[in-house]
């Protein structure tokens, strides 16, 4: 019998030093990043060996999440007096673009560089898909640089105003043996965070991180934060919160650093978006253990379509959404 499942294609990017990445045409997934270190190449991402495994993955492992990553309360928002109902896939809410978001679509190869250091994938999301207005064209380019930087460049256009918010949902584990990432040290360039209700929806306040488990202003070990017994952390089984980045300009700036004392691998994440969701892999299961990977997800704030005081997340006809994420690995 002929299989109805399209095969997933895997593209390898590599530099002369061995710094390499693997990208799939399904979900524009970043399946692997290998970083050159003194002890050889270190795999710094959680990923599945078999591309087909991603078809049933509900952890958004390595994917580009959208059309609106993170949560929209009750999947509802209103634009020019018209209410839009999005698909509901996380409790009462819309998460990461819904039941069949961009993370669960096949993307087309637009171009790959002859030097194998860059690849562009594109996809199309028609008007009304998952409830969103507008025909949206999306393009994502992954580029490796010789100085151990991986650049994710995301662009999109629409023919109707629509909320739009993409992120890279890679789970980092910088330990050579991929043992729990709870030993990692994290620094976030944020003096404020967004408190949430138990279902993950921001209350609308921007609170200081001082004297809270969300104070990552200096590099500090994740375990103390994840195991904090305050209701804000315990209700999420760890960190699953959005941080208000200190630099709110549209220029690409340093947002966070992650470091493994076990391997010495040190990651810096840069972005031009105003928020950073830190998710400590609280619900990982199956092939992975809870806290085995850490997501550092630059984005607009969750539920922005319903919070007029949050930074503007609407993409308008004639404008181009542009989000750049840079993962920079320091020489160790
Ligand atoms: C969200 C989590 C969610 C996870 C997997 C993260 O980006 O913040 O709440 O469980 O993605 O879907």
Report on this model:
With 332 residues, the chain is an all-beta fold. The mean pLDDT is 96. The strands form seven sheets. Strands 10-11-12-13-27-23-22-17-20 form a nine-stranded antiparallel beta sheet. It is built from two helices and 27 strands. Helix content is 3%, strand content 39%. Strand 7 and strand 8 form a beta hairpin. It is globular, with a radius of gyration of 19 Å. The termini are far apart. The chain binds beta-D-glucopyranose. Beta-D-glucopyranose binds next to strand 24 and strand 25.
Entry keywords:
single chain, 332 residues, mainly beta, six-stranded antiparallel β-sheet, 2 helices, 39% strand, binds beta-D-glucopyranose
Topology diagram in text:
Layout: E1 10-14, E2 20-24, E3 30-37, E4 40-43, E5 63-65, E6 71-72, E7 76-79, E8 82-85, E9 94-95, E10 108-112, E11 118-125, E12 136-145, E13 149-158, E14 162-163, E15 167-169, E16 171-172, E17 185-188, E18 192-194, E19 207-208, E20 220-221, H1 222-226, H2 231-234, E21 240-244, E22 253-259, E23 266-271, E24 275-279, E25 294-299, E26 314-315, E27 321-330
Antiparallel strand pairs: 1-2, 2-3, 3-4, 5-15, 6-9, 7-8, 10-11, 11-12, 12-13, 13-27, 14-26, 16-25, 17-20, 17-22, 18-19, 18-21, 21-24, 22-23, 23-27, 24-25
Bound molecules: beta-D-glucopyranose (BGC).
């Amino acid at each position: 019998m002929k299989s109805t499942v399209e095969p997933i294609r895997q593209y390898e990017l590599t530099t002369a030093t061995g710094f390499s990445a693997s990208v799939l045409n399904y979900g524009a997934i970043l399946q692997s990043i290998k970083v050159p270190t003194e002890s050889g190449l270190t795999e710094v991402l959680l990923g599945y060996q078999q591309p087909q495994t991603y078809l049933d993955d509900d952890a958004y492992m390595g994917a580009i999440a959208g059309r609106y990553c993170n949560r929209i309360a009750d999947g509802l928002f209103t634009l020019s007096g018209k209410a839009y109902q999005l698909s509901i896939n996380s409790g009462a809410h819309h998460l990461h673009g819904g039941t069949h978001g961009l993370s669960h679509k096949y993307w087309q190869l637009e171009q790959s560089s002859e030097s194998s250091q860059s690849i562009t994938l594109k996809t199309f999301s028609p008007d009304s898909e998952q409830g969103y207005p507008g025909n949206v064209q999306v393009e994502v380019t992954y580029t490796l640089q010789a100085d151990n930087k991986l650049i994710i460049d995301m662009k999109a256009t629409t023919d109707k105003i629509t909320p739009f918010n993409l992120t890279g949902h890679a789970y980092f584990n910088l330990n050579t043996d991929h043992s729990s990432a709870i030993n990692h040290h994290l620094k976030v360039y944020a003096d404020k965070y967004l408190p949430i209700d138990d279902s993950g929806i921001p209350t609308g306040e921007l609170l200081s991180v001082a004297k809270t488990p969300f104070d990552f202003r200096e590099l500090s070990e994740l375990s103390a934060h994840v195991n904090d017994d305050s209701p804000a952390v315990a209700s999420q089984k760890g960190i699953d919160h959005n941080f208000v980045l200190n630099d709110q300009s549209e220029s690409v700036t340093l947002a966070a650093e992650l470091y493994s004392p076990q391997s010495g691998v040190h990651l810096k994440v840069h972005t031009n978006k105003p928020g950073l969701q830190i998710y400590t892999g609280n619900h990982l299961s199956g092939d992975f253990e809870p806290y085995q990977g850490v997501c550092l997800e630059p984005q607009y704030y969750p539920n922005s379509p319903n919070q007029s005081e949050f930074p503007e997340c609407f993409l308008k006809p004639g404008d181009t959404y542009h989000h750049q994420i840079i993962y920079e690995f320091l020489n160790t």
